[in-house]
What we know:
With 298 residues, the protein is an all-alpha fold. 73% of the residues lie in helices and 0% in strands.
Amino acid sequence: MGQQIKADACLILVTLIWGSTFVLVKRTVEGIPVFAFLCLRFLLASAVLIAMFGRRLLRLRARDILSGALIGLALFAGYALQTIGLQYTTASKAGFITGLSVVIVPLISTVLLKTKVRSTVLAGVALSTVGLGLLTVQHDLLPSYGDLIVLGCAVAFALHIVLVSIFAPTVDAMALTTVQIATVALLSGLVSLSSGIWWQQISSDAWMAAGFTGVFATAFAFGVQNAVQSHTTATHTALIFAAEPVFAALSAYLLAGEVLAGWGVVGCGLILMGMILAEIPVSAFVRKPSVKIGKESR
């Protein structure tokens, strides 16, 4: 029980860190190109991980490195779409839309791993879809450009989770994480070259944002997640991560004065309910018949 409590506390801390970064990233990319910021963030994260787990990389086989690069490609797509989308939508809305990855994971698993979709997952997807509509639809009954981009980010993050579940069991977790993060740094750096001499545009605030998100929200967060996963279940972890959009909305309110009102609040509630419902097994709703011991059983 003690290890479970510690694992939960660590995962809640990771969730809090991730949720608090939406406002920070949104403000930072107003003054620095998106991919330049991602390059800085993931270069710093890569440096930390290589310093800590560099020797483990030597044990990786070529196919392990390719697997890590493939997972990193999905991770790159997720962070790129999320960071771009934050330029066109609010941090609080982006947090809830990103959280939809929790309900998208089972759907992608069904396609790639041929797993069966539980009825609770379908119910969770339905609730979240209605919630997404209420949260993103504007007066013209169309979602905003930024909301659609962040929705693509949720799909990419869901794919990342599924790919990790496929390749991670047979590879050193921290070495694989290092390859993923380094892949994102490399791809971001290559794309950022199109922005010209962007390093002249980096302010002290941008360096601080890259440092916080790189060290704490990337290297530390992914490291902690990999370390404590052995002490808890994937479902339990997903339920804790469902709090990320709540922390995102709270930090957006405290730091940026963003307020969700009207149907948007209802939509956020439905998304959160859908995320939680999708992770609850059907058996939790089935009442087990009581066993009576009487003369007939003797």
